[in-house]
Design a protein that fits this description.
Number of helices: 3
Strand order of the largest sheet: 1-3-2
CATH topology: Translation Initiation Factor IF3
Oligomer: single chain
CATH architecture: 2-Layer Sandwich
Helix content: 25-40%
């Protein structure tokens, strides 16, 4: 008997996949998402970009910039995982314990 569809609360939101794909298809270029009206919407879009990048298996960096017309712009760039790791090692050194976030560190209560 086939399995049913996944529960709706676990369904992945694919609303921002096209932005990540556009950056990847442009050789990991830095792109701009303009016309964001407020900080709450900008935060929502940033979360969507991070979730979509994770689903693609890549990294993304996002900067919020205030435009001259009063709206916000999101400048985002995708990176391969290897490129992202190399950046962290270059910035914080080889010792993962000195990094601000170490994904392999055990959780301490």
């Amino acid at each position: 008997m086939p399995k049913g569809p996944p529960p709706t609360w676990r369904a992945r939101n694919k609303d921002w996949d096209h932005l990540i794909a556009a950056s990847v298809n442009a050789d990991y270029a830095r792109l701009v998402y303009a016309g964001v009206p407020d900080k709450e919407r900008a935060a929502e879009i940033k979360r969507g970009l991070f979730r979509s990048a994770k689903a693609f298996g890549i990294s993304v960096s996002v900067d919020t910039v205030k435009a001259e017309d009063g709206t916000l712009q999101l400048h985002y760039k995708t990176h391969s995982k290897a490129e992202a790791r190399a950046y962290v090692v270059a910035k914080y050194g080889d010792n993962p314990n000195a990094w601000p976030y170490n994904p392999r560190r055990r959780h301490t209560a």
